[in-house]
């Protein structure tokens, strides 16, 4: 049987046994894809958009080498910025400053370009007020922002920040874009589930209220639902709100 010289020397204690673990054998790109796939599965398992966003920013700081802090901000109609998820409080301060000064990479990612990169926030001419303040006050020097989604009312972006200038390589930026795509899909799925659950809860409450009217007034199902609808129209209140009141109080709403 033939044994390699390296393996023989390892047995003799002259050199270390070659590392044949999965991490050592898989090229960096494949390793990243493995991490990204696992991250995508974790985000898909989250029960709400908020959970998916919070997990996403933690994943970003874990698998993007240059990323020291990450956040997801949403710009609402009227330019109000809300931080929906942040790896730490530094990101919330950054977003608040963008809102205050009405400039910054998150806003540009939402208003103009899908991906916005800055190698040096201190000297970036696009944000003459915001950039230097972030460097001085927070200690972050570079950033990458990716647009995640847009609706009629809201725009969302994933923002990555590094502590050094030029913290993000071209590979980091490409990896961040891949992560952003998975985050967008996970958010869409979580939002769809949330909407479906909300609709199901609404139908359940309406069904319960209909049952109460059927029992209380000896009405057929169609007639009981018609009574609910008429009360909703007369009071100019959504049908679910009327149903909630009936289920909670066990009484008809007062006129």
From TrEMBL:
Signal peptide per UniProt: none
Alphabetical UniProt keywords: Kinase, Transcription, Transcription regulation, Transferase
UniProt feature, compositional bias: Basic and acidic residues: 9-26
A Pfam match: GAF_2
Region of interest (Disordered), ranges: 1-26
Xref: InterPro entries: ANTAR, CheY-like_superfamily, GAF, GAF-like_dom_sf, GAF_ANTAR, WH-like_DNA-bd_sf
GO MF terms, alphabetically ordered: kinase activity; RNA binding
Listed PROSITE patterns: ANTAR
Record-annotated ANTAR domain positions: 186-247
Protein's name in the database: Unannotated protein
Species name: freshwater metagenome
């Amino acid at each position: 049987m033939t044994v390699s010289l390296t393996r023989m020397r390892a047995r003799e204690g002259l050199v270390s046994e070659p590392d044949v673990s999965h991490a050592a054998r898989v090229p960096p790109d494949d390793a990243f894809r493995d991490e990204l796939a696992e991250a995508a599965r974790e985000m898909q398992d989250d029960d709400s958009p908020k959970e998916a966003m919070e997990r996403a920013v933690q994943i970003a700081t874990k698998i993007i080498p240059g990323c020291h802090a990450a956040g997801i901000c949403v710009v609402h109609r009227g330019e109000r910025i809300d931080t929906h998820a942040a790896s730490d409080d530094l990101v919330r301060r950054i977003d608040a400053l963008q809102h205050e000064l009405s400039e910054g990479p998150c806003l540009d990612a939402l208003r103009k370009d899908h991906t916005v990169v800055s190698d040096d926030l201190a000297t970036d001419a696009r944000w003459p007020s915001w950039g230097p303040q972030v460097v001085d006050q927070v200690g972050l020097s570079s950033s990458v922002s990716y647009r995640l989604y847009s609706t009629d009312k809201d725009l969302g972006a994933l923002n990555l920040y590094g502590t050094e200038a030029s913290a993000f390589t071209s590979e980091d930026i490409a990896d961040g874009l891949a992560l952003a795509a998975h985050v967008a899909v996970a958010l869409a799925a979580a939002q769809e589930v949330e909407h479906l659950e909300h609709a199901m809860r609404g139908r359940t409450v309406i069904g319960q209220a209909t049952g109460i009217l059927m029992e209380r007034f000896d009405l057929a199902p169609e007639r009981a639902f018609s009574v609910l609808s008429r009360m909703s129209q007369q009071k100019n209140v959504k049908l679910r709100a009327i149903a909630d009141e009936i289920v909670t109080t066990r009484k008809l709403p007062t006129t």
